[in-house]
Amino acid sequence: MDRRQALAVGTGLVTGAFLPSAGAPGTAAAAAAYTNPVIWQDFADIDVIRVGATYYASASTMHYSPGAPLLRSYDLVNWEIAGHSVPVLDFGAKYDLNGARGYVRGIWASSLAYRPSNRTFYWLGQIDFARTYVYTATDVEGPWSRLTTIGTPYYDAGLLVDTDDTLYVAYGNTTINVAQLSRDGRSQVRTQQVFSTPSSVGTLEGSRFYKINGQYYIFLTRPANGQYILKSSSGPFGPYTMRQVLLDLRGPIPGGGVPHQGGLVQTQSGAWYYMAFVDAYPGGRMPALAPVTWTADGWPVVQLVNGAWGTSYPSPAVPAPPRQVTPMTGVDTFDGTRLKPRWEWNHNPDNTKWSVDNGLTLRTATVTNDLYWARNTLTHRIQGPTSTATALLDVSAMRDGDRAGLALLRDSSAWIGVKRDGGATRLVMVNGLTMDGNWNTTGTGTEVASAPVSGGRVWLRASADIRPGAARPGTFSYSTDGTRFTRLGPAFSLGNDWRFFMGYRFALFNHATQALGGAVRVLRFELSTP
């Protein structure tokens, strides 16, 4: 059963009862508090760990490259993007947009772990139901390199470094398995089924694997409305007993879904937290954090507020951070010679066709009239609940037939940008870029508004409302001086179907429709909130 089928089954099941409120932790009037979601950007299938005084998390990225972003925090609330575990999606030509496409494939729910014995981070994930890849690094910022490929595809895997340094992997959909890896982590020693999900529960997947107080736990999600946990007192291969953690629990984002999936993490002081994600389309899946307590017989209980996952809790009691994390919003002038880790390409880029040198140069890499086939489209997550992206482009090196601009990119897309035809340039707003449920292009876009433009520089702006619920608008505008912006075109309705999984992104693009050779230069990009 693939993930789309699993979700369809999971969301069609009979709903359960709310968990009884366990009561929110006591709060003092002056106590600091945090608000959910702790990250209002699309970071799904979170795996979260602590190494010393630093917290790290990994997330799904599907067809975006580099893959598997690494987040870093010192307090579980304020996060920055530190790097990526998978430097390139070298899993086949489709991830290069070379004769095929990898939309909604690639990096799914995967696992991040730290092995103290060799001071090494491990990332593990399966690709295309074919095999599992393991990457390692001694620093989350990299460099990351592939350690091995394992023939068994560990679907929705959770990697455990046991107290005796043995590596185990929990994985599977409905049928849950545990594999033991060799000491060097390069091969599988054994694998065994350890649990079969009762039909009354339906689908379980999204394994996270823990050893806590001598007990083994496999933390599992029922997509997309529940969380369950398995416990073994007899070792990693079980037998396991199951308990429900949450089901149909009201979440902290109005109009959003039930917090689920994600992982457990313990602070330096011994407190436990659960970081889950909330389905909140059109923006994607947003991480939310809640405290966890444990029953006397060793089962986790999510602490609730008025019978729901709280919109606010007292902040975790942790030491003062050594520094402030890098904000996920703000200005990027593309200083230096490398992209910052906030950026991910739509599929792998052609690295001969872009460069960063105190500005981003995007040379045309594809001749196509279909943005979904165009290589070197650079994407940035949208900040919720509403945010605006403004990009300054130098378009003086565009050639006839080139199309460059700023898009709201998903399976239904729109953009503002520049068309160069017959030696003349025009500003346009285009909508109607669409895909079907198999991610084939069904619409390459219709120009719905235009304006004359002169000079080599133009500021393009896209604003997006990604609150879940009713259809939300995206709007486009432009400026020739960076101060006065003029609206162009009608509002674009952001699609909120979950099946594309990834949420809308802002996207910078430049592609040819006639011949390669043109270029644009992005001098500045700003992501701002009201």
Taking all Cα atoms into account, the compactness measure Rg is 23 Å
Q: How would a crystallographer describe the biggest sheet?
A: 9 strands, antiparallel
- Mean of residue pLDDT values: 94
Oligomerization state of this entry? single chain
Low-confidence stretches: 1-30
Beta strands, count:
39
- Find the structural class using helix and strand composition: mainly beta
Which overall shape is indicated by the principal axes computed on the Cα atoms? globular
β content, as a range? over 45%
**Count of helical stretches:** 1
Q: Tell me roughly what share of residues is in helical segments.
A: under 10%
- Span of the ends, CA to CA: 42 Å
Please explain how this structure is put together.
This protein is mostly beta strands and 530 residues long. The protein is 2% helix and 47% strand. The chain has one helix at residues 3-11, and strands at 33-35, 47-51, 54-58, 64-65, 67-73, 79-86, 111-115, 120-127, 131-137, 145-150, 158-161, 167-171, 175-181, 188-196, 205-212, 215-222, 226-232, 241-247, 260-266, 272-279, 285-294, 300-302, 312-314, 330-332, 343-346, 354-356, 360-363, 378-381, 386-394, 402-409, 412-421, 424-435, 441-452, 457-465, 472-479, 486-487, 492-494, 505-512, 519-528. Strands 24, 26, 27, 29, 34, 35, 36, 37 and 39 form a nine-stranded antiparallel β-sheet that branches. An eight-stranded antiparallel β-sheet has the order 4-25-28-38-30-31-32-33, with no helix packed on it. The protein is globular. It starts with a helix and ends with a strand.
